[in-house]
Amino acid sequence: MTEPLSFEKSRRSAGGPRLPGAGVTAPEPSQILAPDQLRTSPPELPRLSEPEIMRHYSRLASMNYSISEQFYPLGSCTMKYNPVVNEAAASLPGFAGLHPYQDEDSVQGALELMWRLEQALCAVVGVERVTLQPAAGAHGEWTALRMIKAYHHSRGDARTEVLVPDSAHGTNPASAALSGFHVVEVKSGPDGRISLADLESKLSPQVAALMLTNPNTLGLFEREILDIAEMVHATGAMLYYDGANLNAFMGICRPGDMGFDAVHMNLHKTFTTPHGGGGPGAGPVGVKADLVPFLPTPTVERTNGHLKLDFKRPKSIGRVRSFYGNFGMLVRAYSYILAMGGDGLTQASHDAVLGANYLRKQVEDDLEMPHDGPCMHEFVASAHNLAPEGIRALDIAKALLDRDFYAPTVYFPLVVPEAIMVEPTETESRATLDAFAAAIKEIVAEARSNPQTLHDAPQKMPVGRLDEVAAARKINSYLQGQSDDPVLRWKPAEKPAGK
Amino acid sequence: MLAAIGVRSMEDLLVDIPSALRIKALDLPAGLSEHETMAQISSLAAGNRVFPDRLTFRGGGVYRRFIPAAVAAVTSKPEFYTAYTPYQPEASQGTLQAIFEFQTLIAELTALDVANASLYDGATAVAEAAMMAHVHTGRDEIVVSGYLHPEYVEVLRAFSDGRGIKVRKGTEPGPKTAAVIFQQPDFLGLLVDAKTLSESAHAAGALAIACVDPISLAVLAPPGQYGADIAVGEGQQLGLSPSYGGPHVGFISCRKELVRRLPGRLVGTAYDKQGRRGFNLALAAREQHIRREKATSNICTNHSLCALAASVYMTYMGPDGMRQVAEVGFKRAHALAERLGGLPGWELAFPDRQFLNEFPMRVAKGPAVIRKLARRGILGPLDVRRWFRELNGVVTFTCTEVNDPQALDELVAALES
Q: Which pLDDT score is estimated for A497?
């Protein structure tokens, strides 16, 4: 089933909604404003009645897989259940109705929540302070690198390079480059962990920071993290923690104790704020004492029980987004932390590691396991063993969709060919993990008996595999002026004059 | 499960963690029941003062507006809010089509060719647009004209620092200028000469970036009409609550020549073997997961759920509804401005300038006036001297469709008392 676009369903006869009149005596815009300040033709927005609109979006909703209905074994993305109480918390009028420019005295509860959340996050990752401002993980990475750059700069040290492992998330090198650094790649060793020899050879007085996630993207804990930290710090560089994998060890160990100087966290992964189909998230950054002066403005400060926003921070890197961050997501994350407590967060990480190892064991004979276990909260398998049948990781992903599972992350990390990255999270039951393992076994058997059915998957979705190559070609021809089909938007059949 | 794995205890799974790093417990209180959790959260919420919509006259980038019930009814569907970024298109057609519709709505509203799937907020949208212009022109200066939202300028500076770009306030672009950025209406609510600004940017070989209020575009000339190359803005007014500043949604649209430089997600149509139309992430080769350090931006997500809210809002309102709320705000603001101008000690701060639904007044002792209004339950105007020293004594008022005529009476009566 597919659903027409709202634009395609638009009816001229559908009147707009009933809205209040102005109720005052005042001129119309056209009576006061110059003609060239006015819009000459109305935008082609759809005209639909409310029942049509509600049905449209209900149909769209039914075309989505989501954590509310499906298991999402999406490696590196920590798709855990999103507690519904968090939604209730964020929609309290006492939070949702606050204007960001209200006086401090009238928002003490909001500032208190931000202060307490900061303290809790400090406790979880072992840092001095946390900025809650970044809107997403990548935004947090970039914010941290800006602080690291400012730190070096304040010491008259113009370092130009950032080291990034070859297994890192793509956002790491992108954030480093956008912060004005030259990116240097560090290789993984045969055991999947960072190569200390290669790291040694890349470290120099030019290096501002090493960006690392631990456990790494292969789900393996970097056993030599303390040596790595020592090597990095000995050259005067800083160690940055990509918090994508923080779910592996809450209450077990802390990035701050490992020697990380800056730590970003994804509230939408570890702390259950919903993904929303791709945001909004929140990417707070924690820092050790050396970096505290460089935190973005404003920070939340507490003196004698009174909370205030501190804008006077002379060494600050400035502001990284408007206002104070994705406040609604902060409420949700704090609600989760309150409900879980220190004991619950620790249990969550234990269960996440347990679930990943259990699932890994269930499928280890079906897929290739390029690295030895135990893993932490996720593992990376490879579909390389099915190459003789012509089956690729993508085929397995699509076949899983037909079995009512979302697909694992595929083709990442880049260091594993035909990678299938699985992160079950602590909120899945053993029964779900067993069902998923059974689906994998069935798919692998089918790969050997009837591979064509896998190439044809998915069959049960609203659409089958989409031809991306043809789509890209169409976009090219539009962008080069050879076609009128914009591909990236709906277009009215004939544009009104004046456009 | 341990037995199935073939280990004896959890400890066997954590062997790779050096013992020196192990902690005994987190320094956090024990977990709470749902009832206790909500009690604590509610007590924090009760520590805030919420002003009624109709008595909120403060804007400055975040506005109280009527939000149709349809918005929450859609965004609270778990199929939308608990879905992941649409990496598997066949299982994410709902999200993808909704984004495609959002892109079209924004492109239509701004009268430009293509819009992306959304950005974090208006401030980062301005900064990302400036980075596009920098890469496109190979120039490293951004000119900020007039009263662009001061927090947007701060974020623009933070982004620019990383790339060695200079941000200069002024009106005259030079040979090094990558873009001229202006806000329409500006931070004070005043209309700028967008056409002349765009033309002067182009004459200098720079791009024109218009930061716009989406509701205003139902009435005002859209960026595509006056020749701007990139339009950006904050979409909070399109169905999102103030929520102490976020999450909201940024938008960005541009001329087709610039599409390859757009940051973030883009959704396009694609077809399956049976010829069925579907939607897919497009032009991913610009993005970080493919291009890594050569990506156009480090962004790997958008504010999808907020974009969905905005789409529902715009679809619900349609062209007529959007125009009506824009006009109601315009009329009420003009009626209020006239009444305020008649009060002793009050005057329009820029009497020669036009505005839409937010406007600056000059008054002595603005802070005292604002405190007095707060005591009467009114969230009064915004004191803009905090950001602009030259605007000592200037406060800005906002009117929308939620500020009914009686609310205007109450405001004026409170000021007269």
A: 47
Q: What is the mean pLDDT of residues A393-413?
A: 97
For the entire predicted model, the pTM comes to 0.97
Mutation target among A8, A10, A18, A24 for the B interface, most CBs of B within 10 A? A24
Give pLDDT tens digits for B141-165. Answer: 999 999 999 999 999 999 998 888 9
Contact A60 B293 (CB under 8 A): no
Region A237-244: mean pLDDT is: 97
Interface touch A39/B26, C-beta < 8 Å: no
| CATH code of the domain in which A215 resides | 3.40.640.10
Instruction: Specify the amino acid at residue A309.
Output: L
A66, B79 contact by CB (below 8 A): yes
Bond into A458 cis (ω within 30): yes
Measured CA to CA, the distance from residue A15 to residue A8 in angstroms comes to: 16
Q: Give how far B6 is from chain A: nearest CA, Å.
A: 9
A267 to chain B, minimum CA–CA distance in Å? 13
The residues, ordered by sequence, that sit 6+ positions from A445 with a Cβ below 8 Å of its Cβ are: none
All domains of chain B in start order, with CATH: 53-67+319-416 (3.90.1150.10), 71-310 (3.40.640.10)
Contacts of A362 in chain B (CB under 8 A): 4
Do A321 and A139 meet the contact criterion of CB atoms below 8 Å apart?
Answer: yes
Angle at A283 between CA A282 and CA A286, to 5 degrees: 135
Q: In angstroms, rounded to a whole number, what is the distance separating the alpha carbons of residues B330 and B277? A: 42
Whole-angstrom Cα distance, residue A275 to residue A80?
10
A and B: number of Cβ contacts within 8 A: 664
B33-65: per-residue pLDDT in tens?
999 999 999 999 999 999 999 999 999 999 999
* Minimal C-alpha gap between B77 and chain A (Å): 7
Name the residue with tokens 């980038």: B61
**What is the rounded average pLDDT of the residues A441-449?**
97
A74-98 pLDDT, tens digit each? 999 999 999 999 999 999 999 999 9
Query: Is the same domain home to A19 and A119?
Result: no
